[in-house]
Every structure is written in structure tokens, then in C-alpha cells.
Amino acid sequence: MIQGENTPGLQKRLRKFYENLAVYDDECFYYLYPPGQERRTKVLALLSAGSGDVIADLGCGDGSISGKIITKVKAVYGVDLSLTRIRRARKKGLQTACGSVTELPFRGQMFSRLICSEVIEHLPQPKDLLKEVVRILKPEGVAVFTVPLEEYLPRTLADVPAEDLENMDYLELKRKYKLVDDHLHSFTERSFQMLLQEVGLVSVELDYTRKYNLQGEKYYYFLLSLVEKLKKYFGLERGAYILIQLLNGLFYRQLTEKAQLVAKVKRG
Fold first, then answer.
1. Does 29 reside within a domain?
2. What span, in angstroms and rounded, lies between the C-alpha atoms of 45 and 63?
3. Is 34:248 a contact under the CB 8 Å cutoff?
4. Considering the domain boundaries, does residue 241 fall inside one?
5. Which of 21, 47, 105, 106 is deepest in the core (most CB within 10 A)?
6. Inside any domain, residue 230
């Protein structure tokens, strides 16, 4: 955990950073490609949500995961720090609130299912979120988390001066400060499970996503640009989607190395 960094100042800087990031980073593109598709598929499989379930999606982003099951469950409530992302999630049918996932606007034991995908590694104090999960999850409820595994993070956003964090875009920050990612923490399977246990949660089923290799990257992006033009000028949304999936099958290769831990979690 980041010592001495859980302050209103850091939270404010991170809020502005993620709002700036959301303006040009539309999640829908990530979920067109194998890494995003695999993560969403595995999260929803472990969630096993039914028609009577009320779902919380914490750090919901654009609603790209929970939005896929919006018509199959009773309701989905999404929370995200970015107002831009909240507006996109709302268009997918989520009931939304813009704010911190460590101070949720929900009553206790409100949710039977909960999604928290690629979120806690962004928080100065991840345990604060987990305490909220314990509070809002029903006694027999199920939560599904994903976290990146064993990342090398020599520097993080917490090391970036306030002025740069608020005013530079993410790619500029990565180059200037040699950032690997926008994550504040790296987890092993053991350290994540120990963190759960500290608040009375336990993982009951584990799965993993895998890393991917994009072969022939130059040709892939050239062909992808042609598909995007086809969609833009002729409005062939469905045809473009099919072509992108064909390109993915030709150029992406799944590796054996683990990328993310996908954990089904309950009260201990």
C-alpha cells in the first residue's frame, strides 16, 4: 500500500488524470480485441448472474462488462470516478453514480452480485474498497474481481508531480517518467488473497486471462484502418465487427503466460 498517499490531494489529482484519460480512451475498442473479450467472458462466467440479481459494478468504466447482461438481470448500478465514462455507461442502461469506489452511495447488503474488474490496483488504499464490498454485498452474495498479476512497477502515478499528473496526457507521462502502467500496485495471487482475508472475504474459485502476442503488427493496423474507414463512410457496423474478429483470429496469438487473476469471492 502507498504510505502517506491516501490524501484528498492525491485523490483529486487522480480524479483529474482519469477524467483526462477517459476523454480519448473509449473502452469499447479494448473489448473488440482478444484480451478484452477474454476478460469479459471470464468475469461474467464466474458472476453467474440471473434475472433476480441486483449487480454493483465498481469502477464500471464505460459499462463494457456489466452492460452485456443488462437485460438479463434485475438492475445494474455502476460507479466510476470519471464523469465521461459514467455518461457512456448510462447509455448502456446502467444506473450510475460518479464518485469514489471507497465511499459508495449504497445501503448495506444491497447487492447479490458485484463486479470489480481492474480497479483496486489503481487505488492508494485498496483495502478501503474491500471494506465497502463487505458492507454492500448480501451475506450469500458473489463478487468477481480481476487484478493484473506480478507487474514490474518501478515508478507509479504516485511518483509523478501534481502539475504533470493533472495536465499531461498518459502517453506523455509514460515517456517522461518511464511508467509501465497507470497502476499504483502490483499483486501476486497470494498477496491478493491475503488482502481479501484481512476484511473477511475469501476466494472460492480462481481463473486467469492470458497474455497475447500481436503478430505482423504493421499489417494488422493497416488492415484495421481500412476496416475503420469502411465503418465510418458506409456505416457497416456489423460488417466491420465481423472483419475485426477475422483480423484478430489471423494476427493475435494467445500465450501461456498469465495476465490477470479472475477471482470469485464470497464472505469468509
1. yes
2. 17
3. yes
4. no
5. 47
6. no
Q: CA 232, CA 225: separation in Å to the nearest integer?
A: 10
In the sheet with 75-80, reading across from the earlier edge strand, the strands are 95-98, 75-80, 54-58, 111-117, 137-148, 252-267, 201-214
Q: What angle do CA 130, 148, 179 make, to 5 degrees?
A: 110
Question: What are the Cα distances from residue 243, in Å, to 17, 38, 207, 221, 240?
Answer: 34, 18, 29, 13, 5
Residue 29 belongs to domain with CATH number? 3.40.50.150
Per-residue pLDDT of the chain (268 residues; tens, 9 = 90+): 544 444 667 788 888 899 989 987 878 788 989 999 999 999 999 999 999 999 999 999 999 999 999 999 999 999 999 999 999 999 999 999 999 999 999 999 999 999 999 999 999 999 999 999 999 999 999 999 999 999 999 999 999 999 999 889 898 999 999 999 999 999 999 999 999 999 999 999 999 999 999 999 999 999 989 988 888 788 777 888 899 999 999 999 999 999 999 999 999 8
Report how many domains make up the chain: 1
Q: How far apart are CA 266 and CA 126, in angstroms?
A: 17
**Please, what's the largest Cα pairwise distance for the chain?**
54
Q: Is residue 60 part of a domain?
A: yes
Pairing state between β 252-267 and 137-148: antiparallel
Question: Against a cut of 0.70, is the pTM above it?
Answer: yes
If you count them, how many residues does the chain have? 268
